[in-house]
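In this supplementary section we document a worked example of the pipeline. Step one takes a protein sequence of length 82 as its only input; no multiple sequence alignment statistics are reported here. Step two produces a three-dimensional model, which step three serialises into structure tokens for compact storage. The input and output of this example are shown verbatim.
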Amino acid sequence: MALIITDECINCDVCEPECPNSAITQGEEIYEIAPDRCTECVGHYDEPQCVAVCPVDCIPKDPDHVEDEEQLMVKYDKLQAE
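The serialised model returned by step three reads:
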């Protein structure tokens, strides 16, 4: 399951550099996560780094992009091949 940044985001800029897949970018109002690049850090870390550093806890799982760990690992492998 990809992650999503909610409108509680305060644009503190700490999540973007932590993403190993470059899935986080600045949107029009708040940061956004590209679901096709988000692996919840599977393949890189034991936990999503953006969630670990977020000071306002505004990065939940995205119910519109449900994936299990195996699917996230396939996505990780695809991104590594780029």
